[in-house]
Amino acid sequence: MSQALTRLQLHVLDAVQGKKDRGATMVEYGLLVALIAVVVAVAATVLGKQIAQLFTDVGDSLGVTVP
Fold it and tell me: Where are the transmembrane segments (predicted)?
């Protein structure tokens, strides 16, 4: 009986700790997504004019006019 109770306690403890790990993992993924968003925003700000000029050059070479 004692062995069965010990197994039950370990099973419950593993289940509770597993849920805590899942929450931590979601927070970590959220932080990564936020970091990637900041990097993209900074890159767009720094390289924005160069990228716009690149698209303009490609459009000009294709003969596309913008109204």
Answer: 29-47
- Find out whether 16 and 23 touch, Cβ atoms under 8 Å: no
pLDDT tens string 2-59: 787 787 777 777 776 666 666 678 888 999 999 999 999 999 899 999 999 998 899 8
51 contacts: CB under 8 Å, gap ≥ 6: 44
At 66 the pLDDT is: 67
Provide the Cα torsion 54, 57, 62, 66; round to 10°.
Answer: 90
**pTM of this prediction?**
0.49
Query: Which three-class secondary structure state does DSSP give residue 20?
Result: helix
Q: Measure the CA–CA gap between 2 and 5, rounded to whole angstroms.
A: 5
Q: Give the C-alpha separation, 18 to 12, whole Å.
A: 10
